[in-house]
Design brief:
Helix content: 55-70%
Structural class: mainly alpha
CATH topology of one domain: Serine Threonine Protein Phosphatase 5, Tetratricopeptide repeat
CATH architecture of one domain: Alpha Horseshoe
Number of helices: 18
Number of strands: 2
Strand order of the largest sheet: 1-2
Distance between the termini: 71 Å
Largest sheet: 2 strands, antiparallel
Length: 345
């Protein structure tokens, strides 16, 4: 009997379970991302690499690159694995990990060679997801949403397809639909990564459901693997603050002054004296300017103003090594200045 390029995912997983002598079968959401291979070793390498990738740490990204390169070496026509590699290289570049991962000398744009190969052997769900993020970067949210839906049509049990859709919808000014997409992803993967809380919390923020937004964003700040100051040095600095900035703004809208001061202290700790990460309105505007077209930015800045952030890091009230000076700048409604957790070091 001839072997086809695209195997039945259900049959493939049955064969895999036998081949692995009793290993636990992968559930539907994992089967949806297997893609177009009949090589069980390649599939296992792909699955391992994709699981590492979804954790979004520099160590896991390094492991993902090894696993995914092994997958395409075992099956040079494995389109989904090429698309996963493209994602990995792209995020490594965005997070500032290229040097740590030895990728700085790669020619051309991150992941472009892999995308060409993925398209030769596609379409696949991950290829559509990659294209969706690319269109969103170009502010073409209609195309981004369309490609995310194509990914979901090919892999309806893959939670990352719904996160990709949520990203496109949220940037396109549709927070209610984005929240629904994230909630679907959470149902598909009850052990979802912390960043799902960020996406749902940010959607809730822009629905002006500030209490729920604050709860979700605070949970992500606590659990985010990039939460340490050391972690912030190794990634694109905005990623360290992606939940803290709207969390401070949510507390500002809610009038929760003490919680706002605590969140700003965490912001200062992650900044570790770097002016580009200063807790000021001007820096927040710079980092979130890509939302200016949808009205999100003004809602965010309004909350930060209510939380008491100074306009710029030139404000005499802020000292990036010691926090906010007493008697000026950030006072909030209680008049108590916030202090960096490292102020006495």
């Amino acid at each position: 009997m001839s072997r086809t390029r695209t195997i039945s995912l259900t049959v493939a997983m049955s064969v895999t379970a036998i081949a692995l002598a009793g290993a636990c079968a992968t559930d539907d959401r994992q089967r949806d991302t297997l893609g177009d291979t009949d090589n069980l070793e390649a599939f296992e390498a792909f699955r391992s690499g994709w699981q590492h990738f979804r954790r979004f740490t520099v160590e896991d990204t390094s492991d993902a690159i090894v696993d995914l390169n092994r997958a395409v070496a075992l099956d040079p026509k494995y389109g989904n694995a090429y698309a996963a590699l493209a994602f990995t290289y792209l995020w490594a570049k965005r997070f500032g990990w290229s040097g740590a991962l030895g990728l700085s000398g790669r020619p051309g744009e991150a992941g472009q060679e892999e995308i060409v190969l993925a398209k030769e052997h596609g379409p696949t769900p991950l290829l559509y997801q990659f294209d969706s993020w690319w269109y969103a970067d170009q502010h073409d949210y209609e195309s981004a949403s369309a490609d995310a839906r194509r990914a979901i049509a090919l892999a309806p049990n893959d939670p990352e397809g719904f996160i990709t859709l949520a990203h496109a919808l949220l940037h396109g000014g549709r927070p209610a639909a984005a929240a629904e997409a994230v909630e679907t992803a959470m149902r598909l993967d009850p052990d979802y990564p912390s960043r799902y809380r960020y996406w749902l919390g940010f959607a809730k923020f822009h629905l002006e459901e500030f209490d729920e937004a604050a709860t979700l964003l605070a949970e992500d700040v606590e659990r985010n693997p990039h939460g340490t100051a050391e972690g912030c040095y190794s990634i694109f600095f905005f990623q360290c603050l992606s939940s803290i900035i709207p969390l401070v703004a949510a507390y500002g809208h809610l009038g929760r002054d003490e919680d706002a001061r605590t969140a700003i202290a965490a912001w200062l700790k992650r900044a570790e004296g770097r002016s580009e990460m200063a807790p000021t309105l001007s820096r927040a505007r710079l980092h979130w300017d890509h939302f200016r077209h949808s009205g999100y930015l003004e809602r965010l800045l309004e909350g930060l103003r209510k939380a008491g952030l100074p306009p710029t890091d030139k404000d005499p009230s802020i000292d990036m090594t010691r926090g906010f000076a007493a008697g000026s700048g950030y006072q909030g409604t209680t008049g108590a200045p916030v202090k960096s957790p490292n102020a006495d070091l």
